[in-house]
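User: what does the whole thing look like in 3D?
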Amino acid sequence: MSKRYLNLVSYFAEGVKIVVSDSNSRPATVVQRATIRDVAARAGVSVTTASRALNETGRMSDETRLRVQQVAKELDYRPNSMARGLVQQRSFTLGLLTDDTYGRFTLPVAAGLSSAMTDRGVSVFLSAGEKEPKRMQLNLRAMEEKRVDGLVITGKRIDRQLPVDVSKLGMPVVYVYSKCPQGSIGFVPDDFNAAKNATQHLINLGRRKIVHITGLSSFEAAHLRKAGWLEALDENGLAPFAEAIFGNWTEEHGYKTAYGLFESGADRPDAIFCGNDQIARGVVDAFAHMGIKVPDDIAIVGFDNWEVFAKATRPPLTTVDMGLTCLGKSAGLALLDMIEGKPIESGLRKLNCRLVVRQSCGGEASE
Amino acid sequence: MSKRYLNLVSYFAEGVKIVVSDSNSRPATVVQRATIRDVAARAGVSVTTASRALNETGRMSDETRLRVQQVAKELDYRPNSMARGLVQQRSFTLGLLTDDTYGRFTLPVAAGLSSAMTDRGVSVFLSAGEKEPKRMQLNLRAMEEKRVDGLVITGKRIDRQLPVDVSKLGMPVVYVYSKCPQGSIGFVPDDFNAAKNATQHLINLGRRKIVHITGLSSFEAAHLRKAGWLEALDENGLAPFAEAIFGNWTEEHGYKTAYGLFESGADRPDAIFCGNDQIARGVVDAFAHMGIKVPDDIAIVGFDNWEVFAKATRPPLTTVDMGLTCLGKSAGLALLDMIEGKPIESGLRKLNCRLVVRQSCGGEASE
DNA sequence: CTGAAAGCGCTTACAG
DNA sequence: CTGAAAGCGCTTACAG
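Assistant: Here's the predicted 3D structure for the full assembly of 734 residues, as structure tokens:
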């Protein structure tokens, strides 16, 4: 019972053939799809013509094209993209590599990428949850064998590379929210300007004594945000009320620091720009305990727009949205351009962030 | 300049050929990989033998096998899995479909799945971030064309189905953290027993007046957890201190409910089992404001082990870990069994959860 | 133990 | 406008 023969078995409703396998390593019941030969035969044309009709290429009478497409629909035809990929030397497939086991950054990026790629008919392989470099390399190899057309590499901070060797990969690579090697293409949020705008927002609301509480000084993002904060102050002729305060990216850091700031009876700030939403949450909680009113006594801005924090904080946080979804989408589109051989400049793209205004600064509140 | 000819162009260092394309829709510079023909030729064997040597099948002298494998390494050979897939009628590829835009549940599931599949040489396509059913269907279709061997469908609650028609898909499907249709295979956490164990934990610590504050009553999970709570009480001859309190799955619900519970000077509970970590966080915050000590005055258990909440709460939450990563892994392995035609029983699998003990209940604390 | 040949399901020069 | 044929890179009966 050859496969060729199986292909000729009578059709069921939607052109799907049910077949009993003779091999014991195969499913007992397998659904055999219609092939382009089936479509061509039933439409009374050659395979060549069927292919052209289905792909909207070549010239032919509308009648023929429509008939072929109609038959394809009747048979519930699905072109086999492995066959197509083999001849076109293109798999219409991308790989997404990440070391973010937590998902905080990866999922929005993945969603933006996946969604944009769907529109262009390309699918994306996910490699997540690998902690050891060897396993990550294994995954990369699997993607090579799958002949992905390109790779997007994403991480959990903009100043670290993934532990994979991508140098002699022979396929286009794009970096997102990850360190981007010289000569490559990368996408990151514009931390500097986001911080500057957030600070300017506070200044516009009349705040003058603006403190910056942020995360670990080993993170480049922390320094960029600090620089943006300083720049906004400077442009407005303001001196920093205090040095930027580095620490963990945690609620606890925000909480304790805010407490310390107000315990000393000294001069008090009227606003705090925080390096992330968790710190901001800690800060707000501290003030709640101390009976200090947000935003009346002090205004707070966060960073990340991690909604589960930003919205749960009382009052809800005004915070910077890094646009990770958009980052994923942009990276995918750039990758597609590279794959198609379009000329594209190397370097780091810093994409605009958006300040989401809620209630923690007073002024107008959008939510 | 035919492709065949390109294949014969001289080798670079690792057997990679750099080639200038003559077609304007192709990359200007493309890296051409070595094929099995190249390996066979260089090893002085037939393609058949090369294939068998590489796949560890057939009988041949160790010398031959090793020589072929050595050559493959020299040429940096990567088998083209599209070609292999075409002949084996198997893509070694899975699809992961989700409607969880938030990523709370999906990423752990995806990581567990992806990681387990890597070990078996299968890759997983991710479809995330689609809100409209039409777009999700589009994605599903793309996966059909990619000839995925199977599909895992995951969501954000166990009592809802995704808006896709999977009935006449003709490929194995497994459900994870999602409603599982009659006759299908599904994996969910064992909410009932997890809740029962969590409650038993409180009882073992000497608590007797245990309140249950949980999420929306429209969620099946809420009812299962409530039932587990009741069962544990019943087994210990305890009556519920109060009716289960449904509400939103939010901090605010926990906060307000906890406040209400203690404002009335009436009899007070000595423990609260919460339907998720956000509620628990709200509860703990309320007690902090009221000067009620956790765990001394009252013990708290959460649900989800969402670390960014559970660990940030003061004191850190004792909470149920649903084992989503394990769920993803188990689903993948089951799917592989189905794909390989192994007999497998339909129905819902309820996987064990794990109580993670921190400080919010007193007693021994592991972290 | 080893290899020539057919075939997986497509696309695409090439020829009519 | 249409089709026969070659070929993408593999695996696997089948035959020696």
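In plain terms: Residues 2, 45-49, 52, 58-61, 64, 83, 85-89 of chain B lie near DNA strand C (CB under 10 Å from a C1'). The radius of gyration of chain B is 28 Å.
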